[in-house]
Specification:
The complex is a heterodimer of chains A (110) and B (116). Chain A has 110 residues and is mainly β. Chain A is built from no helices and 11 strands. In chain A, strand 7 and strand 8 form a beta hairpin. Classes of the chains: A mainly beta (110), B mainly beta (116). At the A-B interface, strand 4, strand 5 and strand 10 of A face strand 5, helix 1 and strand 10 of B.
């Protein structure tokens, strides 16, 4: 079993839709939870990170962590064609490596 | 401030050859991590260097090695290339190791390696 599971998609939505991206993880020792966005032919870029359970909002993006169910979510409101990319969730615990999900391909149609 | 740079950007090699990839971190960043990204396995951690010392290593065979220089630049080497080594190799730099890495890690554009 992989430490972080993520549905690879692709997920296709119309412009303006609310997008929900999700991951589950197996190790309760993970302390930090991140979302990265990767455009084609580019390296991943950090979108958001959270340390504890709860919600964190940044513009159109909301990251949500539920440690009791080991569930990580990213919501994108008013999705735009420019949001089309691969979204990677990642987890981290002190002294160890970052562990990434497989990535979900998102396509926002105009 | 210049971002993480990786050279070369594209590389074609044949089985059995060896390859060296280079990574220059963001100025002031002392930690460099290397990842392999493939469609099937996703992004997998190779190793991390800080102050010229390997701090963490992923589950890759000994054919994969790396090093870091005193100016924080890093190289990774793959010997006796196999077809399955075809991948995007990403380098990421951060200010330090530990929790600070979470907030300050930036990726380079990657080196796309094709093994024939």
């Amino acid at each position: 079993q992989k430490e972080v599971e993520q549905d690879p998609g692709p997920l296709s939505v119309p412009e303006g839709a609310i997008v929900s991206l999700n991951c589950t993880y197996s190790n309760s020792a993970f302390q930090y939870f991140m979302w990265y966005r990767q455009y084609s032919r580019k390296g991943p870029e950090l979108l958001m990170y959270t340390y504890s359970s709860g919600n964190k909002e940044d513009g159109r993006f909301t990251a949500q962590v539920d440690k009791s169910s080991k569930y990580i979510s990213l919501f994108i409101r008013d999705s735009q064609p420019s949001d089309s990319a691969t979204y990677l969730c990642a987890t981290y615990r002190y002294g160890n490596k970052l562990v990434f999900g497989a990535g979900t391909i998102l396509r926002v149609k105009s | 401030k210049a971002g993480v740079t990786q050279t070369p950007r594209y590389l074609i090699k044949t089985r059995g050859q060896q390859v060296t990839l280079s990574c220059s971190p963001i100025s002031g960043h002392r930690s460099v991590s290397w990842y392999q990204q493939t469609p099937g396995q996703g992004l997998q951690f190779l190793f991390e260097y800080f102050s010229e010392t390997q701090r963490n290593k992923g589950n890759f065979p000994g054919r994969f090695s790396g090093r870091q220089f005193s100016n924080s630049r890093s190289e990774m080497n793959v010997s006796t290339l196999e077809l399955g080594d075809s991948a995007l190799y990403l380098c990421a730099s951060s200010l330090g190791i530990g929790a600070g890495r979470v907030k300050t890690q930036y990726f380079g554009p990657g080196t796309r390696l094709l093994v024939l």
